[in-house]
Write a structure and sequence with these properties.
By secondary structure, chain A is of the alpha/beta class. Helices cover about 35% and strands about 25% of the residues of chain A. In chain A, strands 13, 16, 19, 20, 21, 22 and 23 form a 7-stranded mixed beta sheet that branches. Chain A has a 6-stranded mixed beta sheet with strand order 6-7-8-3-9-10, sandwiched between helices. In chain A, strands 2-1-4-5 form a 4-stranded antiparallel beta sheet, with helices on one face.
């Protein structure tokens, strides 16, 4: 028996969670004090989400104990957690797109069902915390930042004692993140504890009072983040020094290899962004990154460049000077372009196909060794696949596994490696390291830079500003389907990018909230 | 006067022809709003029709109504068990349910073929029912006509004005999110499927006890499929389902009336007319794509397996 210690709000003691043969949590102990912003750090797959889901009652531990204000509790389901005073903002929002803001919040509220009263309360609380929300808006029409506000307000209305946030800033502009930190600090002053999961170590140093670090399901350290450096925190998370991406900034102005000229693409559905007058030149030897908050036209732009949605006029897009706007995907590959979409499983690779078969899918028409007279050359595909696996250190369980058997980071290395292996003259990548851990990210970013230094033109679409600064020679920002001018990476600040990302509308809104 | 009588009887027939479509469709609407696609409406109607008919022969049509509902619920629970608990494919299971229902109903009904059935009485309110025209139309129907309209209004109210309806819509929109918030996705879906089954059974019973009080094999004649189509074309909105059901009933009965007049219009055209008119009309009223998109249950037909 451990003695009761009311000093802590929440204690997770010796918690074990086993999935099949995987020990996702192995004797994890975590203690959170009232009013503390407690960082919970670890690489992807370290077991953070597993523990958090158990605290929130969405999963049950294999063994171990949870204590709430010193008393042993059994959190059977999320409703029980909310009753205790635990609120959670999910990484992948638990929102209902077809419902209104108020309806989404009503679903999480116990007791009476009075939409009018609730709407009024939502408007009041959201204004009070500087998180403006329109109760009657349909979620599908809202930006990612606004959706997160719904989740936060939903938690705040229940006056939680502990707020769990899973990577809240991953989807926000720097300004939106700053606004969030103001809210978190205020909650902390009011006595509400925050369990804060993030990959961004700088912000952990900035706002957290305490940090518990998890590696391979085990707690490896409990430190005061203000006394650490980002590098020392990263070392604790990974267990080794992270490869630093190395850029040679030799600015050779080559010829424009990828050219977008007044590219327009109308929306073909209700939740699709229209692309308006996008012009851009990517020269040989350079990496251009397009920043932006998700849902501002990135996937539409990618589809337009890759040829998944052909354009109205050939002149809108040129590869090495050849107008190609009306060509399909394969024709564009055959002129030397390569494309890596955002969604690796289901878009970049077929989950149920072997890696060698996935090689054939993007390279059958450009690579003579894969198909002869319409017949598949499986030997050739295996050679390519092995070469990619070796070059990018893709870790796998058996020689030629199905794509779905690989972890996210390894599959991403494979999908990118498959295209890089062709030495394409033009490479377009959407979110190259989304959901990929630090080690694999560094490998991928280095490979992208190296390709450009060999004379290729590379366009990276990313939401991750750290990544953008790491790889890009020039930066442009996409907002509501329009692209800004390009700026040299060393001539534009994070704050300026943030303003461009938000676009005029949201800046006004933020200013309004600040004065309210 | 004779012409008037004929027109009145056409209007009354339209109402009785539309009621089973409305009952079956409003039930399926609730099922689909919860994210389940049950293609077995036709089968559940057939079983409801034969069970209602058989029970009505012994105990009268009012008991027959409950037998028809119970039969539909039972069959739908089989579907729920297979698709929700055992996570079988909803489309394949629904199709199988239709085949099963048609088969079983034929088997049960062997002895009933050709027997005169018990007919559900029309209500009679002194004075009100005697008003020319309005009386028979508004105050002289059988109870299920009123019930089907009340049920449509009630479903609309519950779905859009109450917490229960909000939960049903939430489960149909994102079962993962509903689960994360602590709602029982599977129990909600079981309840909705059973409700849909009851409505389909009742619709079948209406055919064999009110529309044509007799039992004939395959007497549902594709009405279950029409009900399914109505739900989709009506953008999952109860009011539009009612409009669609009555429109379909009206055009099909008018078609029959025109045919008996012998105006020389090909009968194939007349029989296909209700389908064409209903589809065109509902496509026009669902022209607002954003509204349709917002009302389409995003999880429709997708299996749900919670993580443990």
């Amino acid at each position: 028996m451990v003695t009761e210690n009311p000093e802590y709000l929440l204690e997770a003691l010796h918690v074990v969670k086993v999935f099949g043969t995987l020990r996702a949590n192995d004797d994890v102990t975590l203690r959170v004090k009232p009013g503390e912003i407690h960082a919970f750090l670890g690489e992807n797959g370290a077991g953070k989400s597993t523990l958090v889901k158990m605290i929130y009652g969405a999963l049950q531990p294999t063994s171990g104990e949870f204590r709430w204000k010193g008393k042993s509790v059994n959190v059977g389901n999320p409703a029980a957690a909310r009753k205790l005073g635990i609120g959670m903002v999910f990484q992948h929002f638990s929102l209902f797109e077809a419902l209104t803001v108020a309806e989404n919040i009503a679903l999480a509220m116990p007791g009476d069902f009075d939409m009018a009263k609730l709407s009024e309360k939502i408007a009041r609380v959201s204004k009070e915390y500087g998180l403006p929300l329109e109760p009657t808006a349909i979620v599908a029409d809202l930006s990612v930042g606004e959706r997160q506000r719904i989740e936060i307000v939903r938690c705040l209305l229940q006056e939680p004692r502990l707020l769990i946030m899973d990577e809240p800033t991953a989807v926000l502009t720097p300004q939106e993140a700053d606004q969030l930190f103001v809210v978190l600090n205020r909650l902390s002053r009011e006595g509400c504890a925050v369990l804060y999961i993030s990959h961004r170590l700088e912000e952990v140093k900035r706002i957290c009072h305490n940090a518990t670090i998890l590696r391979h399901g085990k707690v490896v350290a409990n430190v005061d983040p203000t006394l650490e450096t980002a590098a020392s925190l990263a070392r604790l998370m990974v267990g080794a020094d992270i490869h630093v991406v190395h850029t040679v900034r030799e600015q050779s102005e080559g010829a424009a290899r990828l050219k977008l000229d007044n590219l327009n693409l109308p929306a073909d559905g209700p939740f699709v962004v229209e692309l308006k007058n996008i012009s851009l030149e990517v020269k040989a030897g350079e990496v251009i990154a397009i920043a932006g908050v998700a849902g501002n036209g990135q996937s539409e732009l990618f589809d337009a460049i890759s040829g998944e949605r052909p354009l109205a006029r050939d002149a809108m897009i040129s590869f090495d000077g050849r107008p190609s706007g009306r060509l399909g995907v394969n024709a564009r590959r055959n002129v030397g372009a390569a494309f890596v979409p955002e969604e690796r499983l289901g878009h970049g690779a077929v989950p149920g196909f072997k890696l060698s078969e996935n090689v054939v899918l993007t390279r059958h028409s450009s690579d003579r060794s894969l198909v002869k007279m319409g017949m598949l050359q499986s030997g050739g595909a295996t050679v390519v696949s092995e070469r990619v696996i070796k070059a990018f250190d893709v870790r796998k369980g058996k020689p030629d596994p199905e794509a779905r058997a690989l972890s996210g980071g390894n599959l991403q290395k494979f999908v990118i490696g498959r295209e890089l292996d062709r030495k394409p003259g033009i490479l377009v990548v959407n979110q190259p390291t989304w959901g990929v851990d630090a080690g694999a990210s560094a490998t991928i970013r280095q490979a992208i830079i190296d390709l450009s230094r060999d004379g290729s033109a590379v366009l990276v679409i990313s939401q991750d500003l750290d990544e953008i600064y790491e790889v890009a020679d020039r930066i442009a920002v996409i907002s509501r389907g329009q692209l800004s001018e390009t700026y040299r990476a060393n001539e534009i600040s994070l704050q300026q990018i943030g303003l461009l990302m938000a676009g005029a509308h949201e800046v006004k809104e933020a200013r309004h909230a600040a004065t309210a | 006067m004779q012409d008037h009588g004929e027109l009145l009887s056409i209007i009354l027939t339209i109402i009785t022809a539309s009621t089973p479509l409305l009952l079956a469709a409003i039930g399926e609407l609730v099922v689909e709003r919860s994210g389940v696609l049950n293609l077995g409406v036709e089968g559940m109607m057939a079983v409801g029709a034969v069970c209602g008919f058989g029970t009505a022969l012994i105990f009268g049509p009012y008991v027959g109504i409950f037998a028809a509902i119970a039969a539909g619920v039972l069959l739908s629970l089989l579907f729920a068990f297979l698709t929700l608990s055992l996570v079988s494919n909803q489309v394949a299971t629904g199709l199988a349910l239709t085949l099963l229902g048609l088969g079983i109903s034929g088997l049960i009904g062997v002895g009933y073929v050709g027997q005169p059935g018990a007919k559900l009485a029309h209500i009679y309110i002194p004075l009100l029912s005697d008003i020319p025209w309005l009386g028979p139309i508004f105050f002289g129907q059988d109870v299920l006509v009123y019930f089907s309209l009340a049920l449509t209004a009630a479903v609309g109210y519950v779905l859009f004005r109450t917490k229960l309806g909000l939960v049903i819509r939430a489960v149909g929109d994102s079962h993962q999110s509903a689960h994360a918030l602590g709602y029982g996705v599977i129990p909600v879906r079981y309840a909705c499927v059973a409700f849909g089954g009851g409505c389909a059974g009742l619709a079948g019973g209406y055919l064999s006890m009110a529309y044509t009080p007799q039992w004939v094999e395959n007497m549902t004649a594709g009405r279950g499929w029409i009900a399914l189509a109505l739900v989709v074309f009506a953008s999952w909105l109860p009011k539009r389902v009612a409009i669609g059901a009555y429109l379909f009933g009206m055009v099909s009965i008018l078609g029959l009336a025109v045919q008996t007049k012998g105006l020389g219009i090909p009968s194939q055209l007349l029989t296909s007319l209700p389908y064409i008119v209903t589809i065109v009309a509902l496509v026009i009223i669902s022209g607002n794509r954003a509204l349709t998109r917002a009302n389409t249950p995003a999880c429709l037909g997708q299996p749900f397996v919670p993580d443990r």
